[in-house]
Amino acid sequence: MKKRFLFILLISLLVGLQTKAQTVSTFTMKVGPKVGLNLSTLNGTQDFENVSMKTSFNGGVVFNMRWGQRHLSSAFGTGIFGLQPEILFSMQGANVDGRPVNLNYLTVPVMLKFYATECFNIEFGPEFALLVSDPGTVNRKMFTYDLSNLNGGKDVSLAVGIGYDFDFGLSVNARYNYGLSELANNLPWKNSVFQISLSWLIKLNM
Asked: From CA 7, how far away is CA 4, in angstroms rounded?
């Protein structure tokens, strides 16, 4: 129910923004698929001796909006600011004491972009996530950590990154997500994810 509400809310927002983009041509609206590589680990796992990075993937859809003019002679939608919400399936976690801890999330990053040049941009913003997999348990000496219900599966991260948008539609992005939420009240683990991604953006409003 929570996932459905979050999805409907985001789609409603994007439909409203697209409608505005069609009637007011001061910004561009683009949409497209995104795929990438995740290098993830968990912070706050000092009680475990062997914690290593896990390699996995992310993918989903990107909605990119950019408004204003960079120069007086520039076209609308080429200004220095943009907004990019995304809906992604992100495979995260870490290898803990030789066992993979798989944390698969439905994530919604909302990134504010600053275009330092026509194509190069710096981005930051929050990422909201819902756990969609059952990671099971982790054993440590005499203790067993049950990971099947981690705070209802909710997670919040702060994301920062850089990107480059080519004129023909390809977009390259590198991003770091720093987890702000502990996975559970008695388990102070926090997500830490480095992502390298490719997107193909198609302009909707002409």
From this structure: 5
